[in-house]
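Inputs:
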Amino acid sequence: MDQTQTVEGRGSEKLPHDLVIVGAGPAALSAALYTSREDIETLLFEKGAIGGLAAVTDWVDNYPGFEKGISGLELSEQMRKQAERFGAKIELGEVQKIEDQGKLKKLTTTEGDIYAKTVLIATGSEYKKIGVSGEDEYYARGVHYCATCDGAFFRDKKLVVIGGGNSAAQESIFLTKFASHIDMLVRSSLKASDVLIKELVKHKDKITIHLNTTTDAIVGQDGKVTKVIGTDKNSGQKVEFPTDGVFVFVGLLPNTKFTEDSGVELDERGFIKTDIHLMTRVAGIFCAGDVRSGATLQIASATGEGATAALMIREYLETQERGPLPQPVVGHPQLY
Amino acid sequence: MPKNITIFTTSTCSYCPMVKRYLKTKGLPYNEVNLEDHPERQDEVFKASGAMTVPITIVTKQDNTQEVVIGFNLQKLAPAIA
Ligand SMILES: Cc1cc2nc3c(=O)[nH]c(=O)nc-3n(C[C@H](O)[C@H](O)[C@H](O)COP(=O)(O)OP(=O)(O)OC[C@H]3O[C@@H](n4cnc5c(N)ncnc54)[C@H](O)[C@@H]3O)c2cc1C
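Outputs:
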């Protein structure tokens, strides 16, 4: 490790970064805090919001250390500042490709090519689209995926929320701050936690839950969404929900497209496989947080994995300096 | 350098600080309009962008032409401020 180097001037083949982290969500920021505090020169690349999905979450009640809970945006700000305090640098841009060149990893980014001794993939996941007619046509003009960003446009308006998991429940509750009424369309049954279901029930004057209801089309007129057409699966009848806007929360897709030619192995759902040291199939490329196969999809677990990955990266860098590249643990059930 | 940059934001939007951070790294000044404090300007944003979302960044160039960038979209924002 080059303890005296700063990020400036780093990233060439001759003087690669010690660590490049793809993403700047909770897993990445936690890893960066650990590595930069240990003088491992660390650069993060973020294409969206620093803080990742935590930053778009209205309120976080289950991250330890905050008795009364904390807003996701504030928690993200604190994590960013803490990592930057120890010297981590965050670049705004997207990593488009990773190439394994043995001791070096080449990253193609929107800001140019860079080289690193190690890479941590902490890219989390993004909202899935539902795939019905009208969804693309009214994107950001009545069809939305981020309640904390776009909810304020629906003050005293009617809304439809699609989905029945934790995100749909949590975001519906947040949207009651603005909307006059919310129809929540749930394809089968509610999959949200008991705590969130209790909260939904508390808001029953504003939120009506329609179980076993599919969403078939989003319809509009004069450039504005006017209704959602669905099917009540119990009766087989078409149902219509007049609305001013639609928020879609039907699950998440892992952000792994850029790993396509890297040698990193994915599971059948597209999440990245690692060994017990959070190393992927490629020596020197690690993975932590929601994008990792088997992750438990919580901020606390993402930061925990970030910390673990950081310690494993430190060990890898130290061993690498002394001898041959440490390899992933063969025989680990997750990997092989 | 653009003549004026105005960013429409809300206080809960996580992509709004990203646009501000990006403009700061480029050394560009901007005006911010928080739509929670100025709900009367929502229609103006919708007319300019066709979108009901934040951040919306309106870049006015030296020749008074305008570019509207929806969300935190570096592929659009970078050329708009160039
Ligand atoms: C609505 C909602 C509510 C939630 N509420 C809670 C809660 O109350 N408590 C809780 O513990 N958890 C909650 N979660 C889950 C929590 O947000 C995630 O588990 C956590 O954010 C995962 O962190 P991460 O760092 O792994 O990934 P993310 O937070 O997803 O961050 C990944 C980052 O990587 C960036 N990225 C992706 N690809 C690239 C690329 N190619 N180049 C550069 N950057 C890239 C993304 O833009 C993103 O910022 C919630 C999630 C949602 C959606």
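Remarks. The longest helix of chain A spans residues 299-322. Confidence is low (pLDDT under 50) at residues 1-6 of chain A.
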